[in-house]
Amino acid sequence: MELGNNIRARRTDLGMTLDALAERSHVSRAMLSDIEREAKSPTIRTITQIATGLGCTVSELLGEPAPQREQDLQVLRKSQRQILVEPQSGVERHLLSPSLVRRGIEINWLVVPPGESTGVFPPQPSGTVEHITVVRGTLRCRLGANEVVLEEGDSITFPADVEQVFSNHEKKPARCLLIMDSSGKHP
After folding, report:
1. Which of 61, 79, 184, 41 is nearest to 125 (CA)?
2. What are phi and psi for residue 25, nearest 5 degrees?
3. Predicted TM-score of the model (pTM)
4. What is the CATH number of the domain that holds 142?
5. pLDDT tens column, 155-183
6. Are 107 and 130 in contact (CB under 8 A)?
7. Which of 143, 157, 149 is nearest to 174 (CA)?
8. Other CB atoms within 10 Å distance of the CB of residue 163
9. Are residues 85 and 148 located together in one domain of the fold?
10. Which of 63, 66, 147, 172 has a CA between 20 and 30 Å from the CA of residue 116?
């Protein structure tokens, strides 16, 4: 993975210093430097904070290729997915829609192991909407000041400009479909 190079390239393209990105992302300058040099592997939460600070999606930082033509058939095999795994909790985030990222739509498969949590995700830019459907298990969602428990088959759609924590208090993994729409074309 070339995450560090992608972060550095996007930061420099924006004319942003490490200090400026540290301020915008709430990730220390030292940690950003280590990540850019590939000396440290960031958590999913840290990558999300950096993406927010750079005004892009996590998928863009992962360097997902753009489709050559809009009408091209895009097949993504399970073995080809970009997967981020949180080292401490084992939370997994699988990108399912690399070709839609440039349109501001990201479709992910989220797996939260038993008794684990994603930790706090920072608010997304205003206008971003998220949708979660629980495919298996139970997911507790803290969205700003609201808390909702979703059972298997339940869904929630919400403005993502609040802090978010997703946790699983059950004895089996929670498996969810997570859709993020940051195209900003929401009423």
Report:
1. 184
2. -100, -15
3. 0.65
4. 2.60.120.10
5. 999 999 999 999 999 999 999 999 999 88
6. no
7. 149
8. 13
9. yes
10. 63
